[in-house]
Amino acid sequence: MEMLNLLGEGFARIWDPWLLMMCFFGTFAGTLVGVLPGLGPSAAIAVLLPLTYGADPLTALVALSGIYYGAMYGGTITSVLLNVPGESASVVTTYDGYPMARQGRGGAALGVAAIGSFIAGTIGLVFLSLLAVPLSRYALNFGPPEYFAVMVLAFVMVSTLARGNMIKCFVALLLGLLLSTVGQDVVSGETRLTWGSMNLVDGVGFIPAVVGLFGLSEIIHDLINPSQFVDNSKSKIKLREVFLTWDDFRRTWGSMVRGGLLGFFVGVLPGAGATIASFLSYGLEKRISKTPEKFGTGMIEGVAGPESANNAASSGAFVPLLALGIPGSGSTAVLIGAFIILGIQPGPRLMTEHPDITWGLIASMYVGNGMLLAQNILLVPFFIWLLRVSRNIMPVIVATVCVVGVYSVDFSMWDVWLMLIFTALGYIFRVAGVPGAPLVIALVLGQSAEFALRQSLVISMGSASVFFTRPICVIVLATAAACLLYPLIRSKLRGLEETE
Q1: Which of 90, 123, 141, 374 is 20 to 30 A from 163 via CA?
Q2: What DSSP string describes 191-203?
């Protein structure tokens, strides 16, 4: 009953014309991000983040969150029609979606993806609503030691997001922690690592850093490496082809529900995310199918399950984000930064200190889910037209928004130069295979982690035992250690198997 009351209050607040318009803007922009290959949700959130500076927190978060979960819908179009996933979570959609398009059933593939995403997204939001209240009841048990432990877990989780060399992840993390110490000391107020520059007294700006690292560097990389662009001129599909037949729905409704349930619980796990959820769902559908040998040849269940899973996972990712302040992906790492610059600390106390914003945001996701269903059915011809012109105009638009957006925050050329420095760093990261998410989350949470650490040591008179005598701390730190050691143990075991 308490959950229904809080959700009702959230719907009452979101039912405002301005908030509804921002919800539509976010979901529409997210769909565009998914449609256009080369520009992911992390980059889109980073590029548009300066435009929300000074706005009402709920308004900004509704728009930015809409970009995140909207991108999960949009990536389907290029996956089905061009065999080019607009987002990593849509890779598995190409397995059966593109063969369906070659057979003349591309419209059915897009239709089942849209409906499955709506059903699974709603399932994910229901579970998110149910879990929000129980998690918020533990908020009062969190003190400085618990907050520091959770931030350590966040650092470990975001460092395991990248597939590949973990050393590169920790290099990015340590660089972010170093940059977070620039400026005034959080306790003494003395300046550190500013080299006498007044521009660095307040620290390294998050907005120039994230826009350069994720936004402008992506455009530069795509311009230097144009081979990823494909010929879009022959992509055509009629609106009536998107609507499902009864037989298609009968074959896929079970896949949608299974994908929704699986995707949500995978999305809750920090570090798992929508990409893993979609692959697991595809494997599940193939395993339980009576004709598994046909998967990869145009099976509609092979589109319905993964597309449902990746959208439910995006809802599940909000559980650790809102309840613990832990990112489940690079996109949610940028979202955490958006929360903080808007004056809201995601984590254990969020739902008790800002219930209006929390439940307004959750309610907006229900509304946005319905908007996305309509957009992805009715606007398919527009998105296909956009694919034909995106190669020529998108770099110019994104670069302009980056520069103008960063400058307009404080009307400072220093921020623009800082953005260009991070653009170069982001390009180097892309070439070297170093993920940007660890740097971002360290830059965002570094000062808070340092402050929580110092408070904890003051409480314990300088003894580190405070982190090992409090149950929640022990559990959280043990989880962080397990997450850190698991990839190392797994690689060792694989090495032993190969030598035998």
Answers
A1: 123
A2: EES-TT-GGGTT-
Evaluate if residue 233 carries a pLDDT over 50. no
Answer whether 376's CB lies under 8 Å from 73's CB: yes
Banded pLDDT at 321 (limits 50, 70, 90): confident
> Distance between CA 246 and CA 258 in Å, rounded?
19
Contact indicator for 1, 38 with CB cutoff of 8 Å: no
Per DSSP, the three-state class of 183 is strand
CA nearest 175: which of 149, 155, 189? 155
Q: Give, in order, the Cα–Cα distances in Å from 454 to each of 187, 451, 461, 462, 468.
A: 8, 5, 10, 9, 16
Beta-carbon count within 10 A of 12 CB: 12
Tokens 């300066």 belong to 50
Chain CA centroid to CA 356, Å: 22
- Other Cβ atoms within 10 Å of 222 Cβ, number: 20
* DSSP-assigned states of every residue in 34-68: HHSTT--HHHHHHHHGGGGTTS-HHHHHHHHHHHH
Residue 64 above 70 pLDDT?
yes
Given a contact cutoff of 8 angstroms between Cβ atoms, the answer to whether 74 and 377 are in contact is no
Instruction: pLDDT band for 217, please (50, 70, 90 cuts).
Output: confident
Would you give the DSSP letter of residue 51?
G
DSSP label at residue 214: I
CA–CA separation, 3 vs 94, rounded Å?
A: 39
Residues 244 and 377: beta-carbon distance below 8 Å:
no
Task: Name the pLDDT band for 144 (thresholds 50, 70, 90).
Answer: confident
What pLDDT, on the 0 to 100 scale, is given for residue 227? 53
Residue with tokens 């256009």: 36
The answer to whether the beta carbons of residues 30 and 74 sit under 8 Å apart is yes
Residue with tokens 């809750």: 268
Does residue 406 contact residue 52 with C-beta atoms inside 8 Å?
no
CA distance 108 to 240: 10
Phi first, then psi: give them for residue 183, nearest 5 degrees: 110, -155
